[in-house]
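User: Hey, quick favor. My workstation is busy. Could you predict this chain's structure for me?
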Amino acid sequence: MLHNYRFIPETMKYKTFRLTFLICILTAGSAAGQDGLYTFSLQGLGGYTTPDVVPFWLRANQYGSVPLDGASLSLTGSARKEYDSGKGKLFDWGASFEGRANLGQGSNVTLIEGYGKVRLGIFELRGGRSKKITGLCDTTLTSGSWAVSGTSLGVPEVELSIKDFWILPWFDQFFAFKGNYTHGWLGEVPKDRPGETGIFYQRTYLHQKSLYGRLGKPAWAIKLYGGFNHQVLWGSEKEYYAGPYYNDDYLLTNLSTYFYVITGKRLTNGNIQQVRLGNHLGSIDLGFEYAFKGGRLLIYRQNLYESGSLIRLANIRDGLNGMSFTSMKKNHNTLHLKKITIEFLYTKNQAGEVWSPSTPSPYEGYYNHGQYYEGWSYNRVGLGTALIGTRSTLRNDLPAYPGEFFINNRLYAFHTGVIGQIKDIHFMVKTTVSKNFGTYTTTDEEQSTNIDNPGAYGIFGEQNQLSTYVEIKRRLHNGVNLGLIGALDYGTLLYNSMGIFLNFTYSFKK
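Assistant: No problem, here it is.
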C-alpha cells in the first residue's frame, strides 16, 4: 500500500523549521514570572552590634545591605514590578528599586538595587544594579556561591539572558538550558604595574557569562544539572602595558582585546608572555535533583578555577559541596522544617601541595591577582564567598603578605542553614564552623609553590571560627511583620562580636 506523502522542497523545509523554532523561542516563557503585581515594602531596623565590628552573618550574602556598627537605625524601602504571569504575553517589562538609609556613627544612604528589564519570549534584557548570585547552589541558605555570592553590592551592568530553564522542543522535553551574557562597569580600580612603584587607578569592566543544562523531563522525579560560569575583570590594557617595562609590546585593538578577554586566550608578544588579559575566575558546576511527594532534594558541587589548574585536576579537592532538602508538606500546628541546607567548602589545596600535578601557575591563589591590587572584589568587598576574608574583615594581629588583598583563602568550613516554622513563628538559623590557614605566603607547610621564603611576613597558623545567625518573625496582620535578628562571632579569625536588631516590615501588593 502506498502512502500519499506531500512533497516539500528542501528550502521550504528549512524555512518551516526556522519559523517553528522561532515561534517556540518566543512563546516559551511567556507565562513565566511571578504575580505580575506591583510590590512595595518598607522595613525598619534598630539595634546594636559590638563597636567597630559587624558580625559575619549580618554582612555576608546581604547584597551590600549592611547595618552600621554600634547602635544604629535603618530604613529600607523597595518598589518592584514583576512580569505578568498567566496572560501569555509575548512582551513584558519589570523594574525594581531598593534603597537603604543607615543612621548612627557614619550615617549613609545606599542604592541596594535599581534596574529595569524587558522580556521577549524566553529572552530578558536587564540594565542596572541587581541582587545577584552566580553558580549552582541553594541561594537562600548557602554559605556563599564561589563566583558571585551576593555579599557585595551588585555591579552596574547590562545583561542578556535566558533566566529560566527553556525546554528544547525536541527529544520529548528531555533537554533544557539557560544562560546569560553580561557587561558591567566597576569604575576606577587600583592596579599594580610591574617595574613601577605606586598603585594606578584605571577604568575596569566586568565580563560575565554562563551556560547551564538540565537533563530530565519536567515530570520526572530525577533531574541532572551541569554547566559553567566565567567572569573576568578587565579594562585599560593599553594603559596598563604602556610602561617602559613592556616597550610598547601591547598591539591589540579594542576589539581584539575583548576577544582575548571573553575567550581566555593567552597573549604573547615581546615581554608579554603567556598572559591572560584580566582577572579570570569561575566554576564548573554539577547537580542532582530528586523530587518526591514529600519534598525535593538537591545535591550540588561547584568546582573552582582561576589559573587553569582544574583542567589538570590539580585543584580538584577544592570546591563547594552542598545538599539542600525542601519540604512540601503543610503543617502549621507543630514544628515544620521547610528547608535544610548543609554545605562543605574546601579551598586549602589550590594546586600548591607537594603531591599536586604540575601546572603553568605555581598555585591558584584564590581571589588574589598580580595586576588587580584588590583582587576579586567590588568597592573593596569580595564578590565571591565571604568566608575568604580580606585584611579589613579579619583580626589585625593575623599576619599577611602586603601584596595580597585576600589574606585568608586556604580553609575548610562546615555550614548548615534551616528555615522553619512553629505555629505562627517563622525562623531562619545559619551556623558556620571553619578552620582557616591564611595563604601560601603565610604558611610553613611543605608546598610545591615557588614562593621565595614563605612565612617571611609571619605564620598564619590554624584559626578556628564560629559564626551564627538567628532570625524569627511573626506576621501580625495586613502585611505587617515583627521580628528579631541576632548574630554572633566567636573564634580567633574574626573579632568576637554580637549584634541584635528589632525588625519591622510592612509590605503590600497592588
